[in-house]
Amino acid sequence: MSMITVKPERSRLVAFARWATAQTPKVRTVGLAEFAVPADLFVHAPEDVLIGALVDGHRYVSPSEDAANALPEPGDYDEHPGQELLGVATPEALVSPAEGAGDFAPLEDAPIDDEGDEQDDQEQAAPEDSGPFPCDLCPREFETERGRDSHRRQVHKED
Asked: Residue 79 contacts by C-beta under 8 Å, 6 or more apart in sequence?
């Protein structure tokens, strides 16, 4: 059975809990102020207990809120030109890397002296005092102090 997690808005928690416990079987909690609602029962939940709730991690937007913001109802986007559903792949975007290879400039066109950011990153990543850091409890050596200290905590716990 598919379940939808609903975390009602704090001011509507009691009303949602009353609705949830009136169902047969009762809707159970799955966390602090979170309920697991069967998907087929969710569509019958009263609008006033869902407003402001988090439904599967997303804020519930009521149709009345859409109307107040002059937004079309869900499924009504064909009648409103200019509105576009984002996040959906289009055939133009589904091009294999081999086909789209001509869209990028050749590597030979890259500036020769454009190495500043990479050098800065390398300088920040490499510690000044690098070198072998031997473990004083065994013959192992490590490239960083952090590695050596981690080794000591894990391997030489009781020493």
From this structure: 72
